[in-house]
Amino acid sequence: MKMRLSVFSLLFVLLILFLLYKLFLTPGGKAGLPPESALKTIDKAKEISADSSFDMIMRGVNSFKQEKGELPSTLEELVPFHIRVLPVDPWGRPFRYTPQEGGSYTVASAGADGRFETSDDLVKKE
User: Fold this and answer.
1) Phi, psi of 96 (to 5 degrees)
2) Which of 23, 35, 47, 97 has a Cα at 20 to 30 A from 117?
3) Contact call for residues 124 and 109 (beta carbons, < 8 A)
4) CA 110 to CA 79: how far, in whole Å?
5) What is the DSSP string of 42-83?
6) What's the sign of the alpha-carbon dihedral 66, 71, 77, 82?
């Protein structure tokens, strides 16, 4: 009985070590970081979250425009009648709102790097 318990314990420890190896080592061997596929999944989840916030903001802007006959000059004008609170992007930063001539507008997130006008920006136009 004691031998069976030791073999089971050894197999259990080896399984745990294998799982830790898979979780914390990327294919490039960088310890402490999740695998690249997990990072891509996290990035995709943040994009989906941003899309949800974009939709909320755009509904608020369109509601404001329908009620007042013009676009708001800032997103703060939407609170509290068209949006309860202004959402922040998935990285915790405010969205940028830019009204344009002719009644169109743009809502943007600076993306993961926190800087606008870079390749990771998320932008919606109406």
Assistant:
1) -105, 130
2) 35
3) no
4) 22
5) HHHHHHHHHHHHHHHHHHHHHHHHHHHSS--SSGGGGTTTT-
6) positive
- Tell me the two tokens of residue 73: 């000059």
What pLDDT does 1 receive? 46
The string of DSSP letters for 8-45 reads HHHHHHHHHHHHHHHHHB-TT--BTS--HHHHHHHHHH
Alpha-carbon dihedral sign for residues 107, 112, 114, 117: negative
And the tokens for 66? 């329908």
List, for residues 40-95, the tens digit of each pLDDT value: 777 778 888 888 999 999 999 999 999 999 999 999 999 999 999 999 999 999 99
